[in-house]
Amino acid sequence: MTDVTLAEVLATAEQDGTAPRYQVPENWAQGRTAFGGFTGALLVNAARRDRPELPALRSALINFTAPVSQAPTIHSEVLREGRNITTIATRAEIDGKVAATGTFSFGHAQESQLNVGHTAPAAPQGPDDTPSYFPPALKRPPVRFFVNFEVKLIEGSLPFSGSDRGYVRIWARHRDPAMWGTLEGLIAIGDVLPPAAFPMMTRPGPNSSMNWIINLLSDHANTRDGWYMMETQLTAGNGGYSSQVMRVWNTDGDMVADGMQSVIIFA
């Protein structure tokens, strides 16, 4: 079966009443649900659909409330359109039940005395010369959605390796050039890394992201050849719940996005 690109999913959304309905191809699956970055990309696409006047996305809050196991219909509503910020709420429904929600704040650039960013860590090599995140003998990624991305390991350990550190840094890009430099592409790839707690664990177990906060620090998602440097770091974990920070830089070292995610791990 031919893999379906995210660009194709967005382009072929059908209207379900006044809201778009998106397909969930098998190659975007993560266990019994859709990959979280894919769901986030659908939510922000629905928020921007038929609203070409919106300024750049500045912040997003995404909640994963139930498995997105089949085609969701995504409703959107403008909560407030202010002079500087427009806030839009989205709601993904399957059979009338909520599976995910998103709140997106779009805003115009402002004059500011601040120009501060978290400097990108040095990378020993560029993405072309960095080894794959996956062992060479692995013919297909262990989680289905990874087929949509190229992922190179810069620093950190693989999942379930018993590391003393919950940290991973990578180069990553979409295999489909149509998603390079797009907002939906950035949201999708921003969730590509496994939970930051996984390297410290010694065995797998069921897990699920509960929510994801993303602050976007640029007017655009542009980067050379589609590559982003990304890192995730565990900040705390106990009782089956973990918190992690996540950062994204373009190939020039400019910070593009900064985020935090709450993940439940049943192991």
UniProtKB/TrEMBL annotation:
Domain Acyl-CoA thioesterase-like N-terminal HotDog: 25-107
Acyl-CoA thioesterase-like C-terminal domain residues: 135-265
Signal peptide interval: none
Gene3D superfamilies: Acyl-CoA thioesterase, double hotdog domain
InterPro entries xref list: ACOT8-like_C (IPR049450), Acyl-CoA_hotdog (IPR042171), HotDog_dom_sf (IPR029069), TesB_ACOT8-like_N (IPR049449)
Pfam families per record: 4HBT_3 (PF13622), 4HBT_3C (PF20789)
Protein name: Acyl-CoA thioesterase II
Source organism of the structure: marine sediment metagenome
